[in-house]
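debug: dumping io for the single-chain case to check the tokenizer round-trip. Nothing else runs in this session.
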Amino acid sequence: MRRITTTLTRSLLVLAVAVALCGCSPLYFRTLNTGGGDGVTTSSFDYAPGRGLDLYVPAARARPAPVVLFLYGGRWQDGSRSDYAFVGKQLAEHGVLTAVADYRRFPQVRFPVFVEDAALAVAWLRQHAADHGGDPQRLFVAGHSAGAHIAAMLGTDRRYLAAVGMQPQDLAGVIGIAGPYDFVPLTDDDLIDIFGPEADWPASQPVNFVDGDEPPFLLLHGDDDLLVWPRNSIRLAARLQQAGVAVEFRRYPDLGHIRILAAVRYPKLAPTLEDVLRFVWGED
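debug: decoded output
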């Protein structure tokens, strides 16, 4: 037990140093992706030409597993699905069939292309989840930061899933971790380039599309998040509640933008993994 505790403490220290020195560095991701995933098998697939996902399959169960599509953050500009293997491994280790998907990003594309890509990934999972032991009727979309924005767009603006023959209520739920959902006006040049002229900004804000036909939402945010302010989740949660949509909003004290997701790998940092699993499994 002492050896396990020492190893965990050392891993958390390495993680903290990596984040403090250089944010989401290669060392940060190597630390998160080391270990975990007992009994999990991994395969890669293209859900559309040139766009892929990694599928993390849990050990065989007596009944089909819930399914989660995870979309990573990176300011709609950075990221790779391989960096987020720890999310797929941890969820699959707890019995959830998990896909971590790449999507096209700026400057290759601008809004709303990355949301359209995510919709294609949802449709692929809906069609193929059963082939890998998943239940397509229990399909959740989750994301962190920019990925949470994309997930929320799928859950609120029906046009994206309609384009692939689905609707928001075909989702079992949306999980947003430290996401931007109400972030105008834009002042940063790169974001203005991504989301276009001011007249187009309302189309990129999930809060503007809540009308009562949304699936259940789980919103997680750290009170000390200085990159994506907690007011984003506060406002989306309020809008969903006003529309009669089931929403759970969990605020974590003394937690910032990076550790809330790192806690999926190291649950001592925050109850992120616990809250996600409870939402996905429901009464099971």
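debug: round-trip ok. The mean pLDDT is 92.
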